[in-house]
Design goal:
The complex is a heterodimer of chains A (269) and B (307). Chain A is mostly helical and 269 residues long. Chain A has helices spanning 7-27, 29-37, 51-69, 87-97, 102-129, 138-160, 165-179, 185-193, 202-232. Chain B folds into two domains: 1-65 and 92-127; 133-306, Rieske Iron-sulfur Protein (3-layer Sandwich), CATH 2.102.10.10. Chain B has helices at 17-33, 36-62, 93-121, 302-306, and strands spanning 133-137, 146-152, 162-172, 178-184, 195-196, 206-208, 212-217, 222-223, 230-231, 237-239, 245-254, 257-270, 277-282. In chain B, the strands form three sheets. Chain B has a five-stranded antiparallel beta sheet with strand order 4-3-2-7-6, with no helix packed on it. In chain B, a hairpin with a 3-residue loop joins strand 6 and strand 7 (212-217). The chains are: A mainly alpha (269), B alpha+beta (307). The interface between A and B is medium-sized, with 30 and 31 residues.
Chain lengths: 269, 307
């Protein structure tokens, strides 16, 4: 059936595939990529199932723009004696109004933060309404909730960095909100503020939390979350006409397989 | 290769002598520093046990290896006589190595992370006491009137430590002692900056050395711009969400100057001015109750521990 390939086509194919084979033989990278990306999905999925990937892209955009912003931002609450302004706030002004394209990248990061959090909630709503958190995907839900928490922490810690009046007092309120938690609250508040009140070390501390510690946790959690998605596959919507647990034309699910588990999810294991 | 014809690695039989040999070497080296006697003992120990070790290690080569009893005797009745039957001891070498590796790695992890975690957390709770703030001569505080005083709590750290207090000279008490009502400007709802409910006369501002600024106001009540908390002249809540009365400072008077002491939380104030009765508690973050049943939610606050 397949067309017979000419000698030239074969030569080109070999030239392309040989390096890939060389890499794959040593790393398994090609097989891994296929396992990760080229999966079977239920035939009746829709745009709703793209929200998770959209959230991932939103996070990638935040990571990228944040890394570049870090090249120009200075997390110091000291007053610059020549301008009379705090150094952090002055560096934000510098990024926004002086550096070429700084306004754009800062805007992407600032608005992208909202996009990220909104997408987190939309994705969570989709998973909840579709029942996609059920067996065997409970750990995906749990890592997802942890991602929600760390994502919100990103927003909380990032809000202080412009070091203007809004940022400062909103953070004071946020810290004290944490402080009202029973028992550990006052301790948590004092840890967050770096003392009884926001002080000279607080801004740098929040900067480190915002761009090193919390993103590290987010990336690790995303890794687990994506691994689970790849291993367990995408779930059919609840109104699916396909019989759950079966792919068209394939033998029924083996003995012991539970309903709702999508089979043939790209060789999950 | 030798004639055993298999790939199993050759290991000498088990021997305890290397430990004693090592002790001997250690003694020898120690003795070089301490005394010749110790060095001599060490040398003898090292030589003796070194020889014993050598005898053990070369035993297989010199003579027929003595049969070594397995640590747990084979108890499999189905074992075929003559078949290669490997009976693993209950606690094998590999399991020991595995456990020591995990233990070692865990220890290394702890040695690394504990100081780092401590460094992350402890500076927020240690050495957080602030110096007393000198607000200048008493003449700047007219009797019965509030003065907005801003000062640097830690001058070395600069403007980020600027705090605001509302200071009212109450005049002398019945005992003739000076009396001041000094409220901390932070709202005890969630910590926003409380403002006097009246105009501030910027032209009447007095500056004192050390970054202190004094602005007299006529207002005798305060309001918070964030969520609408309202306080009366004694710092008692009159409206809005605050959960206690405004925090206050202790004070002292030195050489005719007003000096701010530590901050404390106030449950409620009855009476007014010099004759006020203040229910005083250790300072805690805004939004936490210091009295009543709700205070049970905050049994220990940092200021009780770190002062």
């Amino acid at each position: 059936m397949a067309k017979v390939k000419t000698r030239r086509q074969l030569a080109v194919e070999t030239a392309v595939l040989a390096p890939l084979d060389w890499i794959d033989e040593r790393t398994g990278a090609v097989r891994g990529t296929k396992w990760f990306l080229f999966r079977n999905v239920p035939r009746d999925i829709s745009w709703a199932q793209t929200l998770g990937f959209a959230t991932l892209i939103a996070f990638a955009a935040q990571a990228l723009t944040g890394a570049i912003l870090a090249m120009y931002y200075k997390p110091s609450s000291e007053i610059d004696p020549t301008t009379g302004k705090p150094i952090a706030y002055a560096s934000i002004e510098h990024i926004t109004s002086e550096l070429t394209l700084g306004w754009l990248v800062r805007g992407m990061h600032r608005w992208g933060a909202s996009v990220f959090v909104i997408l987190l909630f939309l994705h969570m709503g989709r998973v909840f309404l579709f029942g996609a958190y059920k067996y065997p995907r409970e750990l995906q839900w749990i890592t997802g909730v942890l991602l929600l928490v760390t994502g919100m922490l990103m927003g909380f810690t990032g809000y202080l960095l412009p070091w203007d009046q809004t940022a400062y007092w909103a953070t004071v309120v946020g810290i004290n909100l944490n402080g009202t938690a029973p028992f550990a609250g006052p301790w948590l508040a004092q840890f967050l503020a770096g003392g009884p009140e926001i002080g000279a070390d607080t801004l740098a501390k929040w900067y480190a939390l915002h761009m090193l510690l919390i993103p590290g946790a987010v990336i690790a959690l995303i890794g687990v979350h994506l691994y689970l998605v790849t291993r367990l596959g995408v779930v059919s919507p609840p109104w699916s006409k396909e019989q759950a647990g079966r792919i068209r034309g394939e033998a029924p699910a083996p003995e012991g397989a539970r309903e709702g588990l999508v089979r043939g999810s790209g060789g999950g294991d | 290769m030798s004639d055993n014809g298999n790939d199993t690695p050759h290991l000498p039989g088990p021997s305890l002598w290397p430990i004693a040999f090592a002790i001997g070497v250690a003694l020898l080296l120690l003795g070089l520093v301490i005394s010749w006697l110790v060095a001599l003992i060490g040398a003898i120990v090292a030589v003796v046990f070194g020889l014993l070790w050598g005898r053990d290690a070369t035993g297989e080569v010199r003579a027929e290896a003595p049969p070594i009893q397995p640590e747990t005797p084979a108890d499999d009745p189905g074992a075929v006589e003559g078949a290669v039957q490997e009976t693993l001891p209950g606690y094998t070498r590999s399991r020991f190595l595995e456990a020591s590796l995990i233990g070692l790695a865990g220890g290394m992890g702890a040695v690394l992370t504990l100081p780092v975690l401590g460094f992350m957390v402890l500076p927020s709770f240690t050495n957080v006491e602030e110096d007393e703030a000198d607000l200048g001569p008493l003449e700047n505080f007219p009797e019965g009137q509030y003065v907005i005083a801003t000062y640097l709590a830690v001058p070395a750290q600069g403007e980020v430590t600027r705090r605001t207090a509302f200071v009212r000279n109450n005049g002398p008490t019945d005992d003739g002692e000076p009396s001041f009502t000094i409220l901390y400007s932070r709202c005890v709802h969630l910590g926003c900056p409380v403002q006097p409910n009246g105009p501030i006369d910027e032209t009447a501002m007095t500056e004192i050395e050390g970054g202190v600024e004094l602005r007299p106001v006529l207002a005798q009540s305060f309001g918070c711009p964030c969520h609408g908390g309202q306080y009366d002249a004694e710092g008692n809540r009159t409206a809005g969400p605050p959960v206690r009365s405004m925090d206050r400072y202790t004070f002292s008077i030195r050489n005719g100057r007003l000096v701010l002491g530590e901050l404390y939380a106030v449950g409620n104030v009855s009476g007014a001015g010099a004759n006020a009765t203040i229910s005083r508690y250790p300072w805690s973050v805004p939004g936490t109750h210091v009295d009543g049943v709700s205070a049970w939610l905050y049994p220990i606050v940092p200021s009780q521990v770190t002062g």
